[in-house]
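Hi there,

I know you've been waiting on this one. I reran it after we fixed the sequence typo, so this is the corrected version. Both the input and the resulting structure follow.
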Amino acid sequence: MATAPAAEAAAPKGGGSKKLIIIIAAVLVLVLVGGGAAVMLLKKKPPAEDGEDGAEATEAPAKPKAHAKSDHPPTFVPLDPFTVNLADKDVDRFAQVGVTLQVEDPKFADQIKAYMPAIRSNVLMVLAHKTAAELLTKEGKEKLAKDIMRESVRPMGIELDDEDEDDHAAAADAPKKKKKKKKAHVESPVTQVLFSNFIVQ
């Protein structure tokens, strides 16, 4: 009788250890399955993030392209430096002026290069009619820049309004100015005239 209870006592211990092994195995299986699932999810996320980054990278250039239509970097067309005698009557004065034209459309920059001899001739004529006193003031340089802008597009058949002529017309005859104002305003393809050097002697 003593051996039977001992056997019964031993049996639950053996069965208990088997249950413990099964529970540990089940926990390990769950941990491995959970870990494997986590690894799979983590592996899937980076490609998704890469895809998102790729999408962002695709969208990022698209945004600058869309932005570029309205605000892309301008194109600069440098002209060879000008050396010209000025219109001073009392003293021989001359100017050395470096001019660069800023345009928005690169195609128009190529067109400017095609018309360069005519453009240079027009700019030389503008400079030759200036006096040293006119060119030495800030206002004179600003007026020169406007004149160069107007004359640089004239060889291509683009006629810009001369503000000074309009001002003189306004002083002389207001109705004529109003008639000129009714004409459609022409936007210059040259957005700015930049001076790279400016020497008056």
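Quick highlight: The longest helix spans residues 3-71.

Best,
R. S.
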